Amino acid sequence: MPAPAGRSAPNHWLEARCAKAFWSQQETTPHRQLRADTLAWAAPAAGERWLDLGCGSGALSRGLWEYSAGQVAEIVGLDCAAINARAYERLRATLQPPPGSRLRFVTHDFSHGLDIFEDASFDHVISGLSISYAQSWSEQENRWTTAAYDRLLREVWRVLRPGGRFVFSVNVPQPRWWRVAWASLPDAFRSDRPLRFLRRSWRMLQYGRWLKAEARRGRFHYLPAAEVTIRLQTAGFHNVEHRLSYAGQAYIFRAVKGNQPVPLGPTRF
To answer: What domains appear along the chain, each with residue ranges and CATH number?
Structure first.
């Protein structure tokens, strides 16, 4: 999927076709393992308010609800693709106990920040393979930058209560999608519609090529773990730790909101 560089480059994340393609990966073995590992580190508890950042169709929101036996105070799913609202309607209808207004979806592009939420709105924030796609084009420098990525980390820090956790996954540098596809292959034979499963997997690989091409241009950000750690610390997080999951193609991070973010300077990575 070739795309022009610059502000005019298409954003497939906004498309329903792309969103639906990524819904299909949720029941693959690598994604189930990633979800389980992420939720184990999140450890949601009764009475907590959670933000599911870049939520897609709500796999992690479901996990938060089920892990806590429906005792969390609220889960807010946020994503730029409006079609995910339909997925959240279906999700609300299947959860027990029924969540009612305690589970909701908002359409918002986090590349522009999280100004729709007040300071310290959430106890914790969770995110699955999403924050790497915060994008910002600099007209002055005529290139993609990490400004939106860094702003998003600071915004997560802002909307968290003191001591709140940020648990999220991001892909490793130069992710090898074929390893995820290979680890998912047995799932095709367990599927009741294997041809549809394989078609969707092929579509995922096509989107994966687009993502890697845009990452090479600097639009998206598959960063080394050490660099992600530094950026989290600069944003004001501490106790940063990470581990591998997703067939070795994703890091899971857990970090805690500290007292103050570090003022951003001209640091280059």
So the answer is: 12-257 (3.40.50.150)
Two tokens at 225? 């773990």
Evaluate whether 199 touches 181 at the Cβ level (below 8 Å).
Answer: no
* Cα-based distances in Å from 214 to 2, 3, 113, 133: 9, 8, 21, 10
Tell me what pLDDT residue 22 has. 66
Round to whole Å and give the CA distance between 48 and 72: 5
Per the prediction, the chain carries an average pLDDT of 88
Q: For the chain, count helices (H), then strands (E).
A: 8, 9
Length of the chain: 269
CA dist 248 and 234 (Å) reads 26
Alpha carbons 87 and 23: distance in angstroms, whole number: 9
Residues 6+ apart with CB under 8 A from 155: 110, 113, 114, 115
Q: Residue 191: how many CB atoms within 10 A of its CB?
A: 15
The residue ranking higher by pLDDT, 181 or 85, is 85
